[in-house]
Amino acid sequence: MEYKSFEVNLEKKFSVFLKRSINRRNNNWDPKELTYNNFFSNKLLVINTIRTGIPYSLFLSIKAFAPFSETDWAAFLNISPKSLHRYKLLSKHFKPAQSEKIIEITELIKTGLDVFGNMDKFKLWLDTPNYSLGSLKPIELIKNSYGKELVLSELVRIDHGILV
Questions:
Q1: Phi first, then psi: what are they for 93, rounded to 5°?
Q2: Is residue 143 classed exposed, middle or buried when 0-12, 13-18 and 19+ CB atoms within 10 A define those classes?
Q3: What whole-number distance in Å separates Cα of residue 158 and Cα of residue 11?
Q4: Distance between CA 111 and CA 45 in Å, rounded?
Q5: Which pTM was predicted?
Q6: pLDDT (tens digit, 9 = 90+) per residue, 125-134?
Q7: What separation in angstroms does the CA of 89 have from each of 59, 83, 139?
Q8: What 3-state class would DSSP assign to 84?
Q9: Alpha-carbon distance values, 142 to 1, 4, 38, 78, 97 (Å)
Q10: What confidence tens digit (pLDDT) does each residue in 63-103 have?
């Protein structure tokens, strides 16, 4: 699956999820705003989504394309692989803390794909020690919010041609 396919698939899943969750909460968002591409620029929409909880079906779409294993996702979400499997079996929504992490990782993936243009190059960058990140691999840092912010900042610098 190519980068554009990822965006098209997520656009559909996000739009359906957002429209359903917003309608249940009776908020006054313009349906045109309820898209994957607009999602990260609307912090109130992000907060609403975190409070609602990411459904496993949406997580599955993200996970299917992300360059991370099930074990990686379990570590990111601070749950056991067995608990992650239970979410799948029960098709339930993730708790707010886990939903926030899923959104953070999705934002990181979107930024990485915008910078590198394809998942293979982005994955290679994630798995390569980076001098600007203390010679650590970026994937080692994204398990917590501060590390994820460092990695995201490095991606923005690369995108702007600021190499250290």
A1: -85, 145
A2: middle
A3: 26
A4: 19
A5: 0.86
A6: 999 999 999 9
A7: 13, 10, 28
A8: helix
A9: 24, 24, 23, 12, 15
A10: 988 899 999 999 999 999 999 988 888 878 999 999 999 99
Give me the pLDDT at residue 1, please. Answer: 46
| CB neighbour list of residue 99: distance below 8 Å, 6 or more residues apart | 49, 50, 52, 53, 54, 93
Residue 100 tokens read as 């926030």
Buried b (16+ CB within 10 A) or exposed e, 21-44: bbeeeeeebeeeebbbebbeebee
Q: Is the dihedral of CA 58, 61, 65, 67 positive or negative?
A: positive
Q: Which of 133, 144, 162 is nearest to 75 (CA)?
A: 144
d(CA 90, CA 144): 26
Cβ-contact 151, 142 below 8 angstroms: yes
**What single-letter amino acid sits at 69?**
S
Q: Which residue has the higher pLDDT, 33 or 146?
A: 146
Report d(CA 46, CA 8) in Å as an integer: 19
**Cα–Cα dist 41/124, whole Å:** 27
Query: Which CA distances in Å does 3 have to 6, 92, 135?
Result: 5, 27, 28
Give phi and psi for 53, each to the nearest 5. Answer: 95, 135
